[in-house]
Amino acid sequence: DTAVYLRDYQPFAHCVDQVELTFRLAPNSTRVSARLHMRPNPAREGRHDLRLDGEGLRLIALMLDGRPLDATPDDNGLTIPAADLPGGPFVLETEVEIAPEANTALEGLYMSNGMYCTQCEAEGFRKITFYPDRPDVMARFRVRVEGDAPVLLSNGNPMGAGPGWAEWDDPWPKPAYLFALVAGDLRAHGDTYTTASGRQVALNIWVRPGDEHRCQWGMDSIKRSMEWDERVYGREYDLDVFNIVAVDDFNMGAMENKGLNIFNSKCVLATPETMTDDEFARIEGIIAHEYFHNWTGNRITCRDWFQLCLKEGLTVYRDQQFSGDLRGHAVKRIEDVLALRARQFREDQGPLAHPVRPDSFVEINNFYTATVYEKGAEIIGMLKLLVGDDGYQRALDLYFNRHDGQAATIEDWLKVFEDATGRDLSQFSRWYFEAGTPRVKVYEAWSPGAEGGVYTLTLAQENPPTPDQPTKGAKVIPVAVGLLNPNGDEVVPTTVLELTKPVESFRFEGLATRPVPSILRGFSAPVVLEHDISTETRAFLLAHDTDPFNRWEAGRALSKEVLAAMVAQGAPVSRHWLSGLARLVRDESLDPAFRALAMRLPSEDDMAATLADAGHVPDPAAIHDARGRMSDALAAELAPELPGLREAMATPGPFSAEAGPAGRRALANACLALQTRLDGGTAARAAFDAATNMTDRLSALVSLLTVGQGRSQLAAFEHDWQGDRLVMDKWFSVQVLHALPDALVDTVNRLTARPDFTMGNPNRFRAVMGALSANHAGFHHASGAAYRLLADWLIRLDAKNPQTAARMSTAFETWRRYDAGRQERIRAELSRIAQTPGLSRDLAEMVGRMLG
Ligand code: B3K
Ligand code: ZN
């Protein structure tokens, strides 16, 4: 067993006070010299060996207090026996050689398009030098970079530079995972920001020559983030410079290295011509997220990787608040819940389910999950509901005061809330330690009376078993409820009921008529709500609910019911649903973005989950067909209004990516998609030609692809953008995503045979292989050919880039939902991957857990 367990945690036996690093850069022979100023850790009694992590390092020299030392590294580090160490402070010096150009895993120091860059979280620093690579070892870093690149960057403040060298000093002690270095021929898009206390900060977004004009939105996003964190959390920036670098080859979205955030170029570069509205919003959110980490993650970091949600859950929560403030809370909440259900509920309901704070792992990179991130954020939202806005603010102030400069735990986090609010959170803490999505059943009772009737709401919770956790205790579940009277007026405004027992009843007295409840408003807890209500009541809530989230939710639930009946019983499209939704789409008093969201049908994967949950075996082809018929019916219902609606949503004037115009485009393009199902593609072809921004252009293209057209538009798109990696990723992706189920494998094979398909670039790989598994009906084609194709590619990628291969293997996590034939085919592919010689620890852990 190679697993690491939380229960084995011990503080490191030594402290590192100061680190001095010198890099002499060369693609195949970079020299890294390190001077570590260390001393025994007073928290650990006795004398201990010094164990340093290190992987793939060629040791050139080793000295202790200026004297050469003899020690031989093993596969994952270096041990210096206690007997060789003095009892007090000492200086350990190492020199190692590494080969950034040969680093295809994109972890540690690697090269991307001729530029040097790093990714150290979680355990990449050990691929750069020998070091205690764990987050509770915090040290001050001083870095000298030597190399022939014009720009040489590292963390902290610049201390001087000349031809071929630069020095950086980071005054804030930090764990090694926040170390970063970048070197290359880069251009800056610069600006400045003055903090609330008057500190002048130089801001730079560093890009490859030619990309300078794609930085304005990112720069605006930085400044908005800085201003917001000062205003809302009282947190100021703490260095003289804040640098962001755009890198093409990157395993994830971005990384919050102290003072030197490194971004996947896809998550920072944007112009109206190259990026869609959704991408603009995403970029703003990710920039905010990484910036907010400066306090929640960097100033206060995690004691160990089991505490990952301490920084990630909180930082996601903060970026969601930020985006809600800037772009509208109702729409933002709906989008976040859609994503939560699509990724986290899916994870929680399958073999990869794990607690928000796991207690063991094999490869920590496999735990950067929707559960740790998104459910981690949901838990904080619940805490805030339970302690109130004031309580939350006091708790956060206490958190920053008490733990600044520390590596903290979830227990520390909960204690802060207990101390600040006097509330006992022991039962609440189960949210962190127990996996699985609770289910809440709703029962209603009504007794009329002369002095007004009594309405009783009974809530029962169930906490289903998950891998390694067969039984679990009742959770504290905040259930926000409002009551409407039959006219649609709110008679009881939103109240938060606290469900803490397995079953609990809540009474509402003095009501004139039996109310219609609106339950789990704003999605106040990440649970599955089971409430047997009639189609008429759902339609009523869709028309009248005063809580925008629940209004959308009513339509969503209705769509799912209708779609489920169509798939399982061959039912026709429901009139209730059609007329209710059409009324909402026409309602000009509603935000266009909200109307566009309401028009979005449940995804095929979501429907498969819903059907499986209800005890059916989902048939992917039947879901695909029924969903198509549902769109056709909606198109027919709205047919006469579609052109007018599109016109009314026009956004004249210069392009703006703000929420208002983006919402109008979203509604217009949702209408275009329907129109395309009726007019043979005439409108979409015209829209494609007339488009002046990527949102409209791509929407028109996708509308055409969805109905089996768009060949010449694909060719035109390729012609226009073939030199642009980021835009071409979309071109690759949409073809795969919208291929007809029978044509999917051929489409992928045609695309991967192109010279511009490369495994070395994670964005390009994901554009194709991520879309392969996201094309639900095609991926789950009964032949099993798509399963085989994905497995082949994961095996190939694993040899180069285990992290991305492991992450993409989650395409198979839902395998137990499907029929015996499909299960057998997926199981066979998972076993084939598992038996591949030399498989990475990353992918081995994932397939092992999925096979169960
Ligand atoms: N902290 C990084 C993620 C690191 C992933 C390592 N496999 C980005 C973020 O969450 O902000
Ligand atoms: Zn993060």
Automatic annotation (TrEMBL):
GO molecular function: alanyl aminopeptidase activity; metallopeptidase activity; zinc ion binding
Domain Aminopeptidase N-like N-terminal, residue spans: 95-178
EC number: 3.4.11.2
Record domain Peptidase M1 alanyl aminopeptidase C-terminal: where: 536-851
Reactions it catalyzes: Release of an N-terminal amino acid, Xaa-|-Yaa- from a peptide, amide or arylamide. Xaa is preferably Ala, but may be most amino acids including Pro (slow action). When a terminal hydrophobic residue is followed by a prolyl residue, the two may be released as an intact Xaa-Pro dipeptide
Source organism superkingdom: Bacteria
Domain Peptidase M1 alanyl aminopeptidase Ig-like fold: 436-531
Biological process terms in GO annotation: proteolysis
Pfam families reported for this sequence: DUF3458, DUF3458_C, Peptidase_M1, Peptidase_M1_N
SUPFAM superfamilies, A to Z: Leukotriene A4 hydrolase N-terminal domain (SSF63737), Metalloproteases ('zincins'), catalytic domain (SSF55486)
Domain Peptidase M1 membrane alanine aminopeptidase: 217-431
Keywords recorded for this protein, A-Z: Aminopeptidase, Hydrolase, Metal-binding, Metalloprotease, Protease, Zinc
Ranges annotated as spanning the membrane: none
Alphabetized Gene3D superfamilies for the sequence: 2.60.40.1840, 3.30.2010.30, Neutral Protease Domain 2 (1.10.390.10), Peptidase M1, alanyl aminopeptidase, C-terminal domain (1.25.50.10), tricorn interacting facor f3 domain (2.60.40.1730)
InterPro entries hit by this protein: Aminopeptidase_N-like_N, Aminopeptidase_N-like_N_sf, PepN_Ig-like_sf, Peptidase_M1, Peptidase_M1_dom, Peptidase_M1_pepN, Peptidase_M1_pepN_C, Peptidase_M1_pepN_C_sf
Keyword check for Hydrolase: yes
Keyword Protein transport (UniProt): no
Family: Belongs to the peptidase M1 family.
Protein name (Swiss-Prot/TrEMBL): Aminopeptidase N
Taxon lineage: Bacteria, Pseudomonadati, Pseudomonadota, Alphaproteobacteria, Rhodobacterales
